[in-house]
Specification:
There is one protein chain. With 617 residues, the chain is α/β, with parallel strands linked by helices. It is built from 20 helices and ten strands. The strands form two sheets. Strands 6-7-8-3-9-10 form a six-stranded mixed beta sheet, sandwiched between helices. Strands 2-1-4-5 form a four-stranded antiparallel beta sheet, with helices on one face. Strand 4 and strand 5 form a beta hairpin.
């Protein structure tokens, strides 16, 4: 069984690779959906203008010489040149405008694609999303959208656009030169091939260096962020950790220089040397031939200037072809990562069924459930069977690391059993729509926090305009937070924290607990789970808050989790967990009478539940 799980983990960790053509097919499909078919017309007209304008510029000197030698009247020559220049300048203006519009369209597309990534992240199975593999895949996918204009899908589209334009220009110029002399055309194509081959040969090595460079960049970004966080400042100063940070920064700086220089040499230095050497050979042979033809009277001056211009501009078509090809392959990797995450997130393990009695208390049954975290060699939950009857109040207790939080995540559908089944009213929950199943749970986890949104949004979790004001007030009153809300300048519309609004309010630890209770009450789910949300409070305050939770959820099935035992006396049943197993079960009195692990833990902690007692007493 363990080997089979390891194989599944390895399969999930591997990144999918997609054919280049298929990546562009998918990218253009997204473009059409978000920007419409007009995007492709813009691509085409931009390409046409970008192709014609440079050619007219190259032909201008030869055209001038030709017209001067045509024998036409000066007025006609002037009119022809004026018209030529007006057309040329008009194309240049149009090209600048179209390039700006095309840039804007690509930027807009990348921004519009953002919700797709967020949607995929939210639709992803939480167990997979939370895993190390899922987080790595997400981080890699984010680079396709949020690495900047020069990386990811925006650069991917622009690179193909530029590649097609410059490849067409390269072919067109090669044909024009070949009309004059086929051997010159073959020479230019051969030298171009050498430059292209040099870049292709180093591309794989460049990808390797780029990955190392990105890894160093992420490490440096992490260190820089941690070193400047205000909350970390006291530890860094008191424990002299600044020297450790300085040492790590120094190591990363050396790695930056080492791998950065290798990347530059591989991507730019070596290919540039090859390109300059081939350009030198090209210029000597081609210019020598054209000058020879001119001096022998085999070529008119206008033709000489035209072909000199073609050869001089040949590099302007050749180098971008190689550069844009490199950018295509570089950003194809980001596209691979992005699609890999979408496929990873789209792998659902849930059915499409509905809950048999929505919003009603129901029996929850676990049969031989085991669970193992990705990469672990042993199960965290071991062959656990449990039945919770409708309306029952359960206390789930045990030391830290006993598996309580993991069991709760299994019960509320955030994790899937590695083996065994979970049933809601006799129905396998894997056959139920996850969205419908989650509606049955109000959960307050131990790491309570508020989003930097208005207080009303934090409680209702509804879109603007969807908040029931009367219900909101009632829940805040029951949670004993309404009076505090009334003291705020904007009442329930006050922003929490200061990330978005400078006037935002920061709630105390006790107020945060009340806010979470109000949220759970507002949802009004049939099962309420409290996963050690009071861990930061002292035992007396925790006991009082649990009694409030109990009073507010009398008509619901409730599970109270704690490694302290202040929440146990008023519950119908107490489950004591050790190492992923329920080792003791019963009422408070029954477990004390057994004089087992629960009794020992309770007697150790009991002194702290007495008012006036402290740890030092």
């Amino acid at each position: 069984m363990g080997q089979e799980k390891d194989q599944k983990t390895e399969q999930k960790t591997q990144q999918n690779r997609y054919p280049l053509w298929d990546n562009y097919r998918v990218a253009f499909k997204w473009v059409k959906e978000l920007e419409g078919s007009g995007y492709f017309f813009l691509m085409g007209i931009t390409a046409v203008v970008a192709f014609i304008e440079p050619f007219l510029a190259v032909a201008l000197p030869g055209t001038v010489v030709y017209l001067l030698g045509s024998g036409w009247k000066p007025e006609r020559i002037f009119a022809m040149l004026a018209a030529y220049i007006i057309v040329l300048q008009g194309l240049r203006t149009a090209r600048g405008y179209l390039d700006g519009v095309y840039y804007k369209k690509n930027f807009q597309f990348r921004c519009k694609l953002g919700p797709q990534l967020f949607g995929a992240a939210m639709d992803a199975d939480f167990q997979d999303f939370e895993s190390e593999t899922g987080q790595k895949k997400l981080a890699a996918a984010r680079m396709n959208l949020y690495y900047g204009n020069g990386k990811g899908i925006e650069a991917y589209l622009k690179a193909l656009h530029g590649f097609v334009i410059h490849l067409c220009g390269l072919i067109f110029y090669s044909v024009l030169i070949g009309i004059q002399n086929i051997w010159i055309m073959l020479l230019l194509l051969g030298l171009t091939g050498i430059s292209a081959l040099s870049r292709i040969l180093v591309r794989k090595r460049a990808e390797e260096y780029d990955e190392k460079y990105e890894k160093i960049w992420h490490e440096s970004n992490y260190l820089g962020k941690e070193a400047l966080i205000g909350a970390n400042g006291k530890d860094i100063r008191l424990y002299h950790m600044w020297s450790w940070f300085a040492r790590e920064f120094h190591k990363l700086k050396k790695d930056f220089i080492h791998w950065g220089s290798r990347w530059w040499w591989c991507c730019q230095g070596f290919p540039d040397i090859i390109e300059k050497c081939t350009s030198l050979v090209r210029d000597i042979l081609v210019y020598g031939y054209l000058i020879y033809q001119m001096t022998q009277g085999n070529m008119a001056l206008s033709s000489f200037l035209f072909y000199i211009g073609l050869v001089a501009k040949y590099r302007d078509w050749m180098v971008p072809v190689l550069d844009t090809y490199g950018k295509i392959m570089e950003n194809n990797r980001h596209m691979d990562c992005y699609r890999d995450f979408l496929d990873f997130a789209n792998h659902t393990h849930w059915g499409e069924g509905t809950v048999s009695r929505p919003g009603q208390t129901a029996e929850l049954r676990l049969e031989h459930v085991s669970f193992r975290y990705e990469g672990n060699e042993e199960d965290t939950i071991h062959d656990l069977s449990l039945t919770i009857i409708p309306g029952e109040k359960i206390a789930l207790v045990g030391m830290n690391g006993a598996g309580k939080s993991t069991l709760i995540k299994l019960i509320c559908g955030l994790y899937r059993p590695s083996s065994g089944k979970i049933y809601l009213d006799g129905r396998d929950i894997s056959t139920i729509s996850v969205g419908e199943y989650w509606k049955e749970f109000s959960v307050v986890f131990q790491d309570v926090f508020a989003f930097s949104f208005p207080l009303s949004d934090n409680v209702s979790c509804q879109e603007e305009g969807g908040v029931d004001g009367k219900r909101l007030k009632d829940c805040l009153q029951k949670a004993d937070l309404w009076e505090r809300v009334q003291t705020l300048e904007r009442g329930e519309q006050t922003y929490l924290n200061k990330d978005i609004e400078a006037s935002g309010v920061t709630l105390s630890g006790g107020e945060m607990q009340k806010l979470m209770l109000a949220r759970a009450l507002y949802k009004d789910a049939s099962m309420v789970i409290l996963d050690e949300p009071t861990a930061a409070l002292d035992p007396i305050a925790e006991s009082g808050l649990y009694e409030k939770y109990f009073d507010m959820t009398r008509e619901k099935t409730s599970i109270f989790i704690s490694h302290r035992l202040s929440s146990t006396k008023f519950c119908d049943r107490i489950l004591f967990m050790e190492e992923g197993r329920i080792t003791e079960e019963g009422t408070h009195e029954e477990l004390l009478a057994k004089n087992g692990a629960y009794a020992a833990m309770f007697h150790t902690q009991a002194q702290y539940y007495e008012p006036g007692k402290t740890v030092c007493d």
